[in-house]
Amino acid sequence: MATNKFNARGKDLGAIYAENVTAKIFQVAQRGLSQAAPLKEYPHTVPQTGAEAGQYEYREADFWTCGFFPGCIYTLLERTIRYPQAIDILHHPPKHLKDELLRLGRHWSVAINRMSGRTDTHDMGFIVQPALQKDYELTGNPESLVSVTKAAYALASRWDDRVKAIRSWDVAINDRYSITDMEENFLVIIDSMCNLDLLYYIGHTTHDQKLIDMATQHADTIMHEILRPNFSSYHLVNFSPQTGKPQAKMTNQGHADESTWSRGQAWAIMGFAQTYTWTKDEKYLETAICCAKYFLERLQEGKGRWHHPLVPVWDFDASFEDKKEPLRDVSAGVVAANGMLIIHQALQSLGSPDSTADKDNFLDLALQIVNETLDMALDRDFASFETVLDGSEGKVRESGFDAILRHSTSNKNEHAHRPYWDHGLVYADYYLLEFGNKLLRVGLI
Q1: Which pLDDT value is given to residue 170?
Q2: Which residue among 269, 285, 313, 364 is least crowded, i.e. fewest CB within 10 A of its CB?
Q3: Whether residue 94 has a cis bond before it, omega within 30° of 0
């Protein structure tokens, strides 16, 4: 399935570019064509057991993960336009794929365009950037730029000058707590670091320094109040809107308030690395590096204890019934790998790829994480395209499992209303494909 042209520094990453990944995205995307846009539901998780095993479970269109499946379509579109050498499908050359992917991407993006002015969530970056920003960058579609701009200002509306942060959630409710009074509570989560990229992008596009400053001040608040002194991260901090000071530090999706939820740590790595790329302030790069080193140190705890130790456990401090088969979160690993690749590029741009700061060699470590992820979690029921016959194009020989990767964990917190774990996950697939595109952009593939 893999060829040497998809080898990066001795790691065979052909699975990221294989016909299987394009065919799997097609098999799900084409189902959406049977419904009129705007679509009412979007792919979220793929259960690995039970009556519905292998089929995407969908969430309502306004759920925070709605942008990632359209984003998967656009990662493939980027390949067909910019990197046709990464398209290795005999029956569907890049020109055909480009037209079909663009048609699918636009269909799946109608609902996202329509919700781009939402002010009830901080996840506007996750919602609009994977598809709409990429649509603008690849095709120049002005409607997409309007929506991305609208989303940035909608996100900015959640800023509070006393807290010096953007409100992440309006409420936080589980079986342990119910935080609903927005006059007394201001909830900020570590994931918010990865929505700042939207503010920087539009701030620079429109020359609006307020958006840029807002993003940077938010990053400072996260650095000082959500990161611990050892650069591990809390998940959720509740600030007082009156004083701007934290009044509680806790978790919502991790194991415990003082534990380190692996995906939260991964968001920190990527978010601070992205912040550095916009600001060029080295304190953000240093913070990203320290967050990454903490992540890598915790991964090493699995060495010799369980297989594929570079595939992170879902929470670094959780206990496990089976010591040799701990519960993993593949999505945490691929998000962290994206962040580490950004760190590597930043260090190269400073002229210090072999510096003390990069003694861990973040490029090789990112490649190792993804390589182990593919070995452990790649679903082996491969999809493919059928031979073009009678003018019928795009027909897929479907896989019995909709997702590319298995073994993600969305939420295993014991107090969650809806805990679910060990499944395929749409943003694990998205960040795997995006990692592959990052390698193409920097010429490593």
Answers
A1: 98
A2: 364
A3: no
Strand partners, 423: 47, 408
445/441 Cα distance (integer angstroms)? 8
Please, which pLDDT band fits residue 4 given cuts at 50, 70 and 90? confident
Backbone angles phi, psi at 426, to 5 degrees: -60, -35
Q: Which of 436, 293, 440 is nearest to 370 (CA)?
A: 436
CA-to-CA dists, residue 204 to 39, 97, 195, 346, angstroms: 31, 32, 15, 19
Residue 409 tokens read as 């964990």
Residue holding tokens 């690395």?
Answer: 273
Residue 376 one-letter amino acid: M
pLDDT in tens, 59-75: 999 999 999 999 999 99
Q: Which residues pair with 59 in a beta bridge?
A: 42
Instruction: For 277-378, list the strands marked E by DSSP.
Output: none
Identify residue 143 by its one-letter amino acid code.
Answer: E
Q: Which residues pair with 261 in a beta bridge?
A: 315
Tokens of 298: 């915790």
Q: Residue 389 corresponds to which tokens in the numbers above?
A: 């016959």
Residue 181 burial class via C-beta count within 10 angstroms: exposed 0-12, middle 13-18, buried 19 and up? exposed
Three-class SS of 152-215 = HHHHHCCEECCCCEECCECCEECCCCEECCCCCCEEEEHHHHHHHHHHHHHHHHCCCHHHHHHH
- At residue 8 the predicted structure's pLDDT band, cuts being 50, 70 and 90, is very high
- By the 10 Å C-beta count (0-12 exposed, 13-18 middle, 19+ buried), 189 is classed as buried
399 touches 382 (CB < 8 A): yes
Instruction: Decide if 71 contacts 338 (C-beta within 8 A).
Output: no
Give the pLDDT score at 435. 98
pLDDT tens-digit map of 344-395: 999 999 986 545 555 559 999 999 999 999 999 999 999 999 865 344 456 8
Q: Are 381 and 399 in contact (CB under 8 A)?
A: yes
Residue located via tokens 């993600």: 408
CATH of 4-441, one of 1.50.10.10, 3.40.1190.10, 3.40.50.720, 1.10.3720.10: 1.50.10.10
| End-to-end CA gap in the chain | 16
Cα–Cα distance, 53 to 344 (Å, whole number): 38
What is the pLDDT averaged over residues 181-198? 98
Quick: pLDDT tens for 304-324: 999 999 999 999 999 998 999
